[in-house]
Amino acid sequence: MAIKTEQVQGERWVIYIGEKFDFSLVTDFRQAYSELPASIKHIEVDLSNTQYMDSSALGMLLNMQKLLADKNLTYSITHCRAAVARILEISRFNKKFTIS
Amino acid sequence: MFRILIVDDEVINRAMLVQMLNDTGYVHCVEAEDGEKALALAEQYPPDLVLLDVVMPGMSGLDVAPKLKALSPDCYLPILFITALDDQESLVACLAAGGDDFVSKPFDRLILTAKIKAHERSRRMGLELAEKNHSLRLVQQDVERNHRIVEHIFANALDSSDTLNDYFNYYIQPETQFNGDVLLCEKSPSGGVYLFVGDFTGHGLASAIGAIPVSQAFVRMTEKGLSVSEIAIRLNRILLSFLPADMFCVAAIIEIDSSGTRFSIWNGGLPRIVLRDAMGKIQHRLDSRHMPLGVLSEKEFEHDVDIVEANEDDMLLVYTDGLMETLHPEQGLLGEEGVEQWFSEGGINSARQFVELAKVYRLGQPAKDDMTIVLFRCEPFMFDNHVARTHTALLPFELKFTLGKAHLQSQNVVDTFIQRLGHVEGLESARSELYTVVTELVNNAIDHGVLQLNSSLKKDPNAFETYYAERSARIEALEQGEVSVSMHCDPDLRLLTIKVSDSGAGYDVSQIAPSDDEDTFGRGLQLVQAICESVQVTDSGRCTVATMAF
What we know:
heterodimer; A: alpha/beta; Transcription Regulator spoIIAA; 5-stranded mixed β-sheet; two-stranded parallel ribbon; 3 helices; 7 strands; globular; B: alpha+beta; Rossmann fold; Phosphatase 2c, domain 1; 5-stranded parallel β-sheet; 5-stranded antiparallel β-sheet; 19 helices; 41% helix; STAS_dom_sf (chain A); MlaB-like_STAS (chain A); Anti-anti-sigma factor (chain A)
């Protein structure tokens, strides 16, 4: 499975992405946040396993925020490897996500 | 068994003594009629007690006593002189010769057995002690041997790397004295460096032993280029299962990027990590935000990482609590503030200076705790193994392929191919970037060239969905179209030139640049431009040539 999700301490929703984060995941990624429990306040996208990423992944991340805009959630992208962090940095994603 | 040696020249005396001893249960008696025989017998059948006549032909009792004593050097051997003498001088001479007591003639059974019993107790205690000493010596030898083995393993497992020596100024206690501090340094696949500074609870071998699984796992994880927080999670897991509950490891895990100015830091219990600029001003203070490794369960464990941006020639200081716990007899602990003051105002440039200052501060007293100090002056890492490996592993190559209608319709063909190409030895360090650049260029060629999708869709509120729905529809309906990719690799210049052209009608490049940060698509070319050395779009948008360094 390229995407896994987990609810942590009631209010955090973690989406784990596999080795590749690109357009092939568009449906899976969409599903990963389509039915959020009401208690969720924060979405974390865990990229610890992700080595390959392209701009459609960036689009998917922003699209998630747009679709969930009325829920008042906070967002973070975590465990980025250097190459992935660089892509996020080039695209100034730190403005919209907490990145670590 | 308790063996008694009876030495007397008179048969009758010996017979009486043997009889009395047998009657009271001492059945192991050995008899000798003179000193020489006594010594020979004692060597063959070591006695536990000796009844020794003073006046005998040949060697006297006084001559024999010290020789008998010498035969039992490790354990108390009671010697009771048999004597009819009662003048003070003779008795003193007996004691001086090594005698422990007297049995006077004629023999009194009660007194004789009472005395023997008393000395038997001492002898037995002596024997027990000798045995315990012996096993202690064995244990000690065992410990020493184990120490030597572990020292050997340590020397191999924690071999200080060239990277550490080339780029870091550090101090750590010599390896031969086991200590709970660990300093590890490994190159990252993307040309930077990972650093681990740890301090296990306690001192000595027990605390040092945790260093081995940590260092082994650290090497494996850094080879794979895992993120700092992932490394923290995994090390925590290892130590949680490995260490007893009262042991843990205070540590900082740091990744420094290839420019030497960007740090990802996880600090679990180490003293504040400090960054100083070239003027000596403190620019960042990174207090520990986490519990040490090996304490919290996986669920509770916090892996948030701090990102620090620095400038070249800034200096990073990481140290274990041994330094800040440096004690002045009157002024007290040095503390984090004291360390920072030395670092900032004292213009310290080497770990050794800290060690010297700390020694002066302690007024020469020995340090109480292990101390590790690491300094890094921000500068790009220039690992030349790239070049060395290039000549042996990576050939200059040209690669061309053309994607027809069927390939364009099946999504993963190019992705998977490029992913594999990235694992060619010599290209690994750039595999992520290579993937991004090629897939972006190919997708641009498909979207804007072959499919003629246009960016006006962006203004739509459901832009992302609409765009990709439209894309899928057009791909499915595609009747003809081609995208050609050619790659040229120059291992000497370490440059990859990637050319992508399509059969489309061309498009206006300026039209696809994203207008703001909100747009959900259209940032591909921007990414490529940031990653590559140069990007040129020609033939009215039908051909793009990008050159990237690796």
